[in-house]
Fold this protein.
Amino acid sequence: MNPRAKKFLSYYKPYLGVFTADMLCAFAVAGISLILPMIVRYITNTVLVNYEISEAVGVIAKLALAMVALAILQFLCNFFIAYKGHIMGAKMEYDMRNDIFDHYQKLSFNFYDNEKVGQLMTRVTNDLFEITELCHHGPEDIIISIIKFVGAFVILIQIDGKLTLLLFSVIPIMFAFACYMKGKMNRAFRKNRENIAEINAQIEDNLSGIRVVKSFANEEQEKQKFRVGNGKFVESKSYAYWQMATFHSGLGFFTGMINVVVIVGGGLLIARGGLKISDLLTFLLYVNNIIEPVNKLINFTEQFQNGITGFSRFMDILEIEPDIKDKENAIELQNVRGDICFTDVAFHYEGTKEDVFENINLKVPAGGYVALVGSSGVGKTTLCSLIPRFYEVSGGSVSIDGVDVRDVTLHSLRSNIGIVQQDVYLFAGTVADNIRYGKLSATMDEIIEAAKEANAHEFIMGLPDGYNTYIGQRGVKLSGGQKQRLSIARVFLKNPPVLIFDEATSALDNESEKIVQESLEKLAAGRTTFVIAHRLTTIRNAREILVLTENGICERGTHAELIAKNGMYAAMYQVGTV
Ligand code: ADP
Ligand code: MG
């Protein structure tokens, strides 16, 4: 079996019991819809004809009771399908959502460099919804439709072959019309959804840049632009509604026509003496049993397409093998000292041909402090991201304590490396939660201790709820320097032997830079530290400064040595870029 189909079916596995019950209910619902007109026929054809009036009343009363019982049974089955069936769908959605979320956690930087978050979100929301709709409605719709359709045919053909063939000859025309119109209608609504997506993008763009709009006083022009997009929405929606109206009223017309065909055909047969009036009544009662499955089947084709498209998009993600993962017998790093060594390292980003750098050789002993300088885009960030193995080297190797980073588990490797970057990401939650992210088991005392080390305690105590102040969209706004100090507190708590500061103070004003710098220095004490910075203060004390250019490391030494050398570093120092 196709592996994707197998995977699809595997989601049913935990719910086989409910699924079976659901299918039995579908059988019952369809069966009962077929039986009810049969009872009516029995009453009109047999009871009213063959029985004495007094007897007939008793029989009809009994049959009425039976019909009520069947109707109640049908009600219960419908209820089960609508309730338990949907819950089964929701649980399958839950399983799929967990699977894709877990998979997202495994995928590497490479993957996220090339994907948009919005699209990855769609997989988890829209696509999954389409899939589970199919999972749970698909099988029951098929069962109910086929039983009703085939059942009605078998029953009617025994009553009267000619009239049955006449009735069923109209169905293909109706089916073709409905399929055609449904297709047109769906395309129109899809077009409309695209227009809405465009409008949303436009609104988002406008609101994100509202300050620019206002500073250029361009509100009028923005409004005009928006009117155009919003106008297209009405246009496409009008067209879609036109299609929808044609579809629904057309179907209604066909239903009417089918009744007419049955009545006229049946009338002629009765006139010729080939059919009883009660049989015509039965035919009319079954018309619904035939039209409804036709509708359901048309719905199903749509549901099937959407569900399968959704599922293949879902599987496209699930089938991506994480390019960076633990080797089979990867070792746990323990008691890390922090010797970092680059040997003949070459690297290029996936999809690009040119190496960002090659032949990088670098040895930093435990506790060493190395600064990387160089113009923007030469690869400083890239070089450092090879240490926590965010990307895989293209050549050579990076090792920690003499062990290749590819031979250790990602978890133990990354647990031993702390990173402070220019952009700080704080999660929605309290201040304490955000610091605790560095060590999930930390006690409140440890959190406060870390905040003190990071020069953050004082400003945190000044917040409305102290450590319990909520930060995030609806929470307090923190300044760049304050956020940076929280991110440093996180790393204090994590307490890793290896540190990377990637332009941690670049975005800060002089005042906050000083405070942050102070806590960074405190943090660096006794740990292997890589600093990327463009201001001299940060790197002056570095034991080794590496000057990175397009051609790799072109100068290395202490500040004094490099100034004395009067090369690239000295030139940068003079113009003040370092
Ligand atoms: P630096 O930190 O020195 O400013 P980077 O390490 O960020 O430089 O970037 C080095 C080079 O790699 C740049 O030319 C940049 O365009 C490229 N680059 C950075 N990140 C990616 C990525 N995710 N995918 C492809 N190319 C990248
Ligand atoms: Mg950088």
User: Anything to note?
Assistant: The pocket of adenosine-5'-diphosphate (ligand 1) is lined by residues 113, 349, 352, 356, 374, 376-382 (CB under 6 Å). The radius of gyration is 36 Å. The first helix runs from residue 3 to 10.
